[in-house]
Design goal:
Layout (H helix, E strand, L loop, with lengths): L18 E2 H7 L6 E2 L14 H8 L10 H17 L2 H30 L2 H23 L8 H58 L10 H15 L4 H13 L137 H10 L2 H4 L16
Antiparallel strand pairs: 1-2
Helix pairs in contact: 3-4, 6-7, 6-8
Length: 418
Amino acid sequence: MTNLPDPSKSSPNIDNSNYNLEAISRKGQSSAFVMEEENPEDQHLSTLSYFQLLNRQHPNKSVNTNRTPMTMSAIAFLILGLAIDNIWLEMAGVIFCLIASLPAIWLPVQLLINQSLSSQQRSQFIAVSGVVAALVGLANITGLIEGVDPGSLAEWTGALGQILIAILAVYIAWQQYVISKDLTIQQNTITQQQTIDTYFQGICDLALDDEGLLEDWPQERAFCEGRTAAILTSVDPQGKAKVLRFLSQSRLLAPLKRDRHLGRPILDGNGGYQEDRLNGVRVIDLNVMLAGSDLSDTDLRWTELSEANMVRANLTRCDLVGANLSRTILYEANLAGADLRGVRLFYGSLETATPRSRGELPNYQTGENTGAVVEKANFTGVQRLDEDQRRYCCYWCGEHSRKTIPGGCEGIPNKLGR
């Protein structure tokens, strides 16, 4: 018998803790072990006794690895009994073979079962076996088995086996489908992120010149808007949120005050650009890009969304903390469960602020025509809605939406009139 290396006396360059038994069961290698970080110089350790590894997993159960002589003797007895047709030698050989062999394979089989099936799956398998045994016993007690033709019983057993094999095939096919679907989702996520990164780089190249200032050429702004419109229709809600946060933090959505002759944005003296809500020019104007968009469960904190057309947009459970929604069209938008803490819905005074109008310019001092259009919006379960926001929504959301506002609108007039 080949002498196996003792792991306790192995080379100091080898870390025995790297032997990973869990990797064995995943790859179906029940007779070998796998190293987490395999070194070509350590290939000779592949003959390490599997029973020693089992003893590590079961320290309270010793495994006798010196059963080979006993097993060989039992096999010799069995062969001799078969040769001379002696029933007693045959029985002795069978018994000794079982006694010598079963303990050696029991622990590997037990380890394989424990690693292949979860505790719940093992319990379910035992439960199914118990039900089958109970049905067989019940049939025997009631005498049903005695009245069954053996040939018919064999046919039923064969049919049941075929059904079980078909069920197993369906289960395997379903598992393959689930794995394939997960891999497809992961690949789509990676591809989408690469697309978004390429978009970011392209926008930066178009929006910045050699001096690092935002360009004012209309053609470049048109290209930026075209790229933005294209990508917002090809990514999922999380991807849309990433694009909007990038554009907002880059000041590409804000109306910037510009030099009338050079077209350059004017600095505010504090390391940023001045805004001009009334006459400022946005590098990218969202217009109707977000109409009907799904932005549910996304992070849009401190995002510049003013004057965007978000008709029938899905903003359920969206984090809108600090977002600017002034003059935003939220007609029939779904804001259920959204966080509206610090959201700007209007400028100026609450009592004089009104929703935007097509034919009238906004007055950012009094608030006229600076408010968001919230008619028929769904405010069910919105979070952290302050008093001014609640009153504005009650003023201008209409009778249908007033019923969905947390806290109700009792005593607050409906200025919308419908």
